[in-house]
């Protein structure tokens, strides 16, 4: 039976495999005619919304412990967000530019907004902080599926400083993980310095 949940999951698979989303390709993946999809969705935008719902469910935001200190709760949210998008990197370009009109997204952002406001951040700071963090997470999700070595064929004689730091850079999948961990810690530390008592 075709339903909205199955459509969203199949759309994620299509984007992962093909790097783009078209109605005919999604219909083929589901084994139905394109017209059958329109009994459940109004079009491509709604399918993208279903993809977002699938990914949002994977972040565990609804089950997250938001009572932790703001930086710990935000770190847990960021890591779950990264894991969901790293599993479906093909969805990043689609979802990054699609407006967030869904109530389930509003509910998640409500939790984040409450967390940051309760911590003492100003109302005008909250969405810029969230946007900055999400931009970092989405870029990191793409980095997670990039080649382990991104800077190669460096000549030590012409780039001695770069060569020295590359000597200390992992050449396996841990490179992206270390980069995310360091970057996330730097962002959260920087956020903390924006609080009134810092």
Automatic annotation (TrEMBL):
* Domain HTH tetR-type, residue spans: 1-59
Keywords, alphabetical = DNA-binding, Repressor, Transcription, Transcription regulation
Q: Does the keyword Transmembrane belong to this entry?
A: no
Name one process (GO BP) from the record.
Answer: negative regulation of DNA-templated transcription
Q: DNA binding happens at which residues?
A: 22-41
What superkingdom does the record give? Bacteria
What GO terms are given for molecular function? Answer: DNA-binding transcription factor activity; transcription cis-regulatory region binding
Report the leader peptide range.
Answer: none
- Which residue windows are transmembrane per the record? none
Gene3D superfamilies, per this entry? Tetracycline Repressor, domain 2
Name the UniProt record assigns to this protein: HTH tetR-type domain-containing protein
Organism, per UniProt?
A: Streptomyces caeruleatus
